[in-house]
């Protein structure tokens, strides 16, 4: 393996490490909500620092790699895409922090109803995150396309949850504050899935040079 | 001016052009809401294509510039930051589209109440966008810092709007569906301001190599 390949390999490893931390943060933030576990929510907020550090590190490593090794176009594209992906991952970490913050607030009030669709959304969003990163490091177009397809399921679940919350609020005004916070959580999860979709679109663009990146507009709410 | 400087200049111009279109989209999406103007909302949705095209173009121009000119570290950092900024701008354009979509839905129902704080949020978010980009092309650290400071005002206004919407929903169940849509609009605006803040943080990082990028966590809701 050349020195350059070795450095590129290290970059991929660091990106996957960052991705694994983001996955943990997504899982733990929703567990903190469902199990009403403030300690776990606190841990999500705490761990975000490490995610942020990795974002900066990967940026620095990438710049250094480009400046010193002057990679060919295909490698250059891979590295600049990695730099964009870390930005997405960092924001996903922030969204997990937002979920953890809402969980702590919701834990101060009686439970509104058992969470059913939100854990499903979490599982989908987390799987999309993992697969989008795998698709990137393995340059797997098919897997990236599969991630993009799953985004609709997340949106459908979100609509389901929002409909239900609207019903609660219309029936009983005392539920409004809690229902709004839960609606924010569903939107954070939707945005996490959107970031995973963005990563998957970049993977396809990288592989094909095609404008899939903007072929499908991101509809929300 | 060297050929490289000329190319860099063109890149900045294209980025500013993209920024101006995003600013228009933000302004028009909220005008469409406030003035109940479906035609204007449609135009925001339509124009997003051009924003998306510019995103891809700037990426391509940047890659080409790095590959052919092998710029020095300081210029390399500037160009890779431009590539990250276009990603933010593209997402801001998507958020303006989301606002336009909610505006069209809200226009089908009677008006809930006159919009007062949302136009203020719009003005702030739009000004932050313009100044963040100006700060980038002029490498103006002070202006970037000023953008970051303004993010709190946007959050305060959002809380104000959400409090008011919660009050409406608790008083009158028939307002729930409209109030939820308006709450989404405030969140889209908040995210637009977050993107502007992210850009400003990157400008400071570029100027100082300091980790301001993650010094202030992005609290939401």
Spell the H/E element sequence of chain A. HHHHHH
Strand content of chain A: under 5%
Specify Rg of chain A, calculated over alpha carbons. Answer: 19 Å
How much helix is in the residues of chain A? over 70%
By CATH, the superfamily of chain A comes out as Phosphate transport system protein phou homolog 2, domain 2
- CATH class assignment of chain A: Mainly Alpha
Low-confidence stretches of chain A: none
End-to-end CA span of chain A? 48 Å
Largest sheet of chain A: none
* Beta strand count of chain A: 0
CATH topology of chain A: Methane Monooxygenase Hydroxylase, Chain G, domain 1
SS-based class of chain A: mainly alpha
General shape of chain A: elongated
Oligomer: homodimer
Our count of domains of chain A comes out at 1
Number of helices of chain A: 6
